[in-house]
Amino acid sequence: MASTNLKEALKSYFGFDGFKGAQEEIIHNVLDGKNTFVIMPTGGGKSMCYQLPAILSEGTAIVVSPLIALMKNQVDAIRSVSNDESVAHFLNSSLTKTDIIRVKGDIIAGKSKLLYVAPESLTKKENIEFLKSVKISFFAIDEAHCISEWGHDFRPEYRRLREIFSEISDVPIIALTATATPKVQHDIQKNLNMLDATIFKSSFNRENLFYRILPKKDVEKQIIKYIRGQKDKSGIIYCLSRKKVEELSELLQVNGISALPYHAGLDSGSRARHQDMFLMEDVDVIVATIAFGMGIDKPDVRFVIHHDIPKSLESYYQETGRAGRDGGEGECISFYRYKDVEKLEKFLQGKPVAEQEIGRQLLNEIASFSETSVCRRKMILHYFGEEYDERNCNSLCDNCKDPKEKTEGKDYVKYLLDAVELLKETQKSKHYCAFLSGVVNSDIKAYKHDELLLFGIGKDKDEHFWNSVVRQSVVSGLLVKDIESYGVLKLTEAGMKFKKKPTSFLLFKERDYLVIDDESVAINNIGGTAFDQVLYNQLVDLRKSLSKQKDIPPFVIFQEPSLKDMCFQYPISIEELTNVQGVGNGKAQRYGAPFVALISRYVDDNNIERPQDLVMKSVVNKSGLKVQLIQNIDRKLPLEDIGRAQGKSVDDVVDEIQAIVASGTRVNINYYIDDILDNDSQEEIYEYFTEAETDNLIDAHNEFNGDYSEEELRLMWIKFMSEMAN
Question: Are residues 20 and 71 in the same domain?
Answer without folding.
Answer: yes
